[in-house]
Design goal:
Length: about 375
């Protein structure tokens, strides 16, 4: 790759923009001088062209000089640009003297001194401006590059943080779920091989779903409910008639996208802390319905409620509920977090997914993992 190809496009654009600006200036000033002050003296036009070419070369050199100085300390940059301004002024003024005086026979030192003294008046500002404007453009570009880089780093850091958080949450949820289901199936193997085979088949579906959830792709609510039903069937082998399961699902919501395994920890907590310790068991009910501004989810049971050994009041140290709460907030915002309502006759855990996130946006969790 050549040096020219390695130069960022923005610097090339800035260079051609500055040169274009001065091309217009040189053209107008040369035409005015050619028509008004030195009528039909074609050397004026050629001198303007040569001065413009020299300026374009110096602008490129100033950019490279700025790039080198930028890596130094601020004090060195200020000193370097002061020296650079002086060198640029002397070089451009000498080139101007060469075309305006020297080629016309004014070649002596006194001629040069008179030209420089005249140039040190207001006319000198045009040379100062050319250097200062070029340097200013360079530093403006560097400033916006710095701001853009900081924003990108900030975005990447936030994205990586969410990726790590989601990966951690899923790594915690899956083992938590697998431990409970394997513990349930362990009691069946010795008592009934037929039931064990049936549970193994159901468990294979559960495993497949749990493993697929690591891809970060959202799933249809219908698939999530099938997964919950398989989980309940496995648990019903363990608890028998003591565990009942009911659903009240708005059919319009079955095709919506939800994070995988978002309902399982809620159902699992109802089984573990609400139904299992209760002598006569109970019923777990899952409600899903579309409401104004979102889709409402509710998992409730009629178990021990506030009388359970571990009260699920939203401050529980349980991994499942905390992870579900964090996942919902990380994907849909703080308003989508879990709300836990303990009662004397059971628990209700509910949350609402904003409708715009569900039906019109892309799968945010998938985007986080893919990036």
């Amino acid at each position: 790759m050549s040096i020219f190809e390695r130069i960022p496009k923005i610097y090339k654009t800035a260079y051609f923009f500055i040169c274009g600006w001065y091309a217009v200036n040189f053209l107008l000033s040369s035409l005015i001088e050619w028509q008004v002050f030195r009528p039909y003296n074609t050397s004026v036009l050629w001198n303007g062209l040569y001065m413009f070419e020299a300026l374009c070369i110096f602008i490129a050199l100033i950019f490279f000089y700025c790039e080198w100085l930028f890596r130094q300390k601020v004090v060195f940059q200020i000193t370097g640009h002061t020296a650079g301004l002086f060198v640029f002024f002397m070089a451009m003024s000498y080139i101007s003297y060469y075309f305006d005086y020297y080629l016309d026979g004014l070649v002596f030192f006194d001629d040069w001194k008179d030209y420089m003294l005249n140039l040190l008046s207001w006319d000198a500002m045009r040379f100062y401006d050319q250097y200062i404007i070029t340097v200013a453009v360079f530093y403006i570009i560097r400033y916006f590059e710095h701001v853009q880089r900081k924003e990108q780093e900030k975005s990447q850091l936030a994205l990586k943080n969410k990726e790590m958080q989601l990966a951690l949450l899923k790594s915690q949820i899956n083992p938590h779920f697998l431990f409970n289901t394997l513990n349930s199936i362990s009691t069946l193997i010795s008592s009934s091989k037929e039931k064990a085979r049936k549970v193994i088949t159901q468990l294979s579906d559960v495993f497949r779903y749990a493993l697929d959830s690591h891809s970060g792709v959202m799933v249809k609510l219908a698939d999530e409910l099938d997964f919950i039903e398989n989980y309940i069937r496995i648990q019903q082998v363990r608890f028998g008639e003591r565990l009942k399961y009911e659903t009240d699902i708005d059919g319009r919501c079955l095709g919506m996208d939800v994070p995988p395994m978002i309902l399982q920890p809620l159902v699992e907590n109802s089984v573990k802390y609400g139904i299992a310790p209760k002598d006569d068991g109970g019923t777990i009910t899952v409600h899903v319905k579309k409401i104004v501004g979102g889709v409402y989810f509710e998992v409730s049971d009629n178990g021990l409620g506030v009388n359970a050994a571990k009260v699920l009041d939203g401050k529980s140290t349980g991994v499942g509920l905390k992870n579900s709460d964090r996942r919902l907030k990380s994907i849909f915002g703080k308003s989508a977090g879990l709300k836990v309502e303990p009662r004397k006759d059971g628990y209700t855990v509910k949350f609402t997914i904003p409708v715009q996130e569900v039906f019109t946006s892309e799968n945010q969790e998938s985007e986080l993992i893919e990036h």
